[in-house]
Amino acid sequence: MPATDTATTPTAEVLAQAVEALGGQQRDGQVHMADEVAEAMSEGRHLLVQAGTGTGKSLGYLVPAMLHDKRVVVATATLALQHQLVERDLPRLVEAVKDVPGVDTSYAVLKGRSNYACLHRIRAGVPDDQGTLVDVPTGSMAEKVLELRAWAEEETEQGASGERDNAPRHTDREWRQVSVNHRECLGAAKCPFGAECFAELAREKAQRSHLIVTNHSLLAIDAIEDVPMIPDYDTVVIDEAHELTARVTQAATDELAAPDIERAARRAARWTADTDGDPAGDLEDAAGQLAEAFEAIAPGRIDAIPTHLSDALVLVRDAARACLSAFPRESGGEAEGDAGRTQAKGMVQEVFVNAERMAAGSQADVLWLGEARDRFPARLHVAPLQVWGPMRDKLLTDKTVVFTSATLMLGGDFGAVATTLGLKPTERVGSLIATTDDETALPWKGIDVGSPFDYGQQSILYVARHLPQPGRDGLGPAQLDEICDLVDALDGRTLGLFSSRRAAETAAEAVRARLPHLTTLAQGDAQLPELAKQFVEDPHTCLFGTLSLWQGLDVPGDTCQLVIIDRIPFPRPDDPLMSARAKAADRAGGNGFMEVSATHAALLLAQGAGRLIRTTTDRGIVAVLDPRLETARYGRFLKASLPPMWSTTDPALVRSALKRLGQAA
């Protein structure tokens, strides 16, 4: 991309100071991005920025955000990026711009309440299922929970944040013993430890700050679910924006299972015992009715709610409502009693809200029953059919939004992503996007600031056209032979991205058997950080896994010179939500396969291929074992979504290239 004449803009000047302070080098794409972001913020126009890996996009939006005259929120999808912003990029940026007149350098991190330790729960005890407060947990969790309590007290003494990310290693179940969600919280005014509360202190700091760093889920709850969590702001920058619709969907998804209702009923029994009848018992009976209804339904999507399920949901809803009404008014008793009451009522309230939503059978929602497995009961799930409408109505119409990611252009333009985000479909104009003449269209612009990498010289896209089309039974002999031949040619240094855990394990077993001199790791052998560490330390290693490796692994250098993708990652045909969205697109006159399935696959393919080239000196090959990428009509759309690698279908050429890479390494 040609350099833009931005040397005289205030944004470019401050960016240059920041880059120097960080010990980096100025990049044309980064400068272009920063000026476009600054312009979008000042004009109140939405912006989509595709910034390839290595562009330095964090500074590309942090500098204009710091210079903007109103509060800005930055929302990330991953904890890793949030940590990088708060621990590295922002402190150095603050140091670089501290002498710029009129710049407010204050910033804060804001997360959901359950991400902070709760001092009341730690000091006053943890209510059990009967609502009894116990001081020390029992069983195998005891030692870990006591360690977490001691850590939280140290955080208080040191004036630290009490965030879960900083806690000693623990499980979700252990963390729940020292935290509460927003429904269980007493509130700062009623809690005897409100003045020290980690969550409240974080909110107070956010109120005083110009820049707030948060996550997609909290942004969705605040803006779309109408639960006020974030202080008023003018602009939001959404990094890792390719994940936003999935995170918003996740935040708006609810579930219900019989054991959840029974647990809520047992907790409520203590507080509703003095009322007429037995409302807690009625709620527990309703749970049994729901369990029976689940047994009569096959797992999967529910397009029309059967009468017996509808009746059971109404019974649960009404019983939960009656139980809520039976809770006595607060009498200002002991804090411990208030905590037990608040938490019990919060559990019943959650049952009521979820049952009410499910019983409504709204066409705006998708309902499905998950299969019971081992110790996990059958669960009824409900999720929004689409999220672009709420995003458009409750976020895009009120705030200025900057979306950025390395993968926003699918099929060669921004149209597919822009539609899912709630921006009106638009006409393409050259490399930019301009809105149509439709007066209801939201003003937005899309730019691709390029990448510092020369993909055509640094990488090869190999499509194994000679292989049979993937079947439903997983990897066949031809695919396993191809995987072993490719790995053998490079002698390790391979990241395998598979569509299922079974496929990853099958491939790992085959490579271990045929190439025993290599170390072959499969996801699940250990925690991901431990696997990644071993992958980096030993060059003669293969790491095979599923979805979390497609997006969450960053291993630059010779560690990873071959990325194998077993098949185009279309959503499963029986995926309740994706299939419902595709069906809705077809009904609306669109193409459900292209709008939903192909777009989903293109995004994952781009993310998976992006694991290969992480620096300007990286070299390697992305091998796709699915011939449909070359032979199917939609293959052109998928390939146009990938980095511009040199492409081939010649297996002999690829093996020779891999051998040269292995020898050079």
Characterise this structure.
The protein has 665 residues and is an alpha/beta fold. The chain folds into four domains: 10-106 and 401-448, no CATH class; 113-199, no CATH class; 254-384, Four Helix Bundle (Hemerythrin (Met), subunit A) (Up-down Bundle), CATH 1.20.120; 455-664, Rossmann fold (3-Layer(aba) Sandwich), CATH 3.40.50. It is 46% helix and 14% strand. It is built from 26 helices and 22 strands. Strands 3-6-2-7-12-1-15 form a seven-stranded parallel beta sheet. A seven-stranded parallel beta sheet has the order 18-19-17-20-21-16-22, sandwiched between helices. The protein has a four-stranded antiparallel beta sheet with strand order 8-11-10-9, with helices on both faces. Helix 1 crosses helix 4 (79-97) and helix 22 packs across helix 23 (592-609). The longest helix has 26 residues, at 335-360. 47% of the residues are buried. Mean pLDDT is 88; it is low at 1-7, 129-134 and 426-437.
Map the helices and strands:
Layout: H1 10-21, H2 28-43, E1 46-50, H3 57-67, E2 72-76, H4 79-97, E3 107-109, H5 119-124, E4 126-127, E5 133-134, H6 142-158, H7 172-176, H8 198-207, E6 211-215, H9 216-223, E7 235-238, H10 244-251, E8 254-256, H11 258-272, H12 279-295, E9 300-302, H13 307-326, H14 335-360, E10 365-370, E11 379-384, H15 388-396, E12 400-405, H16 415-421, E13 427-429, E14 432-434, E15 444-448, H17 455-458, E16 459-463, H18 477-490, E17 494-497, H19 501-514, E18 519-522, H20 528-537, E19 541-545, H21 547-552, E20 562-565, H22 576-587, H23 592-609, E21 620-624, H24 628-631, H25 635-640, E22 646-648, H26 651-664
Parallel strand pairs: 1-12, 1-15, 2-6, 2-7, 3-6, 7-12, 16-21, 16-22, 17-19, 17-20, 18-19, 20-21
Antiparallel strand pairs: 4-5, 8-11, 9-10, 10-11, 13-14
Helix pairs in contact: 1-3, 1-4, 2-3, 3-4, 9-10, 11-12, 11-14, 12-13, 13-14, 18-19, 18-26, 22-23
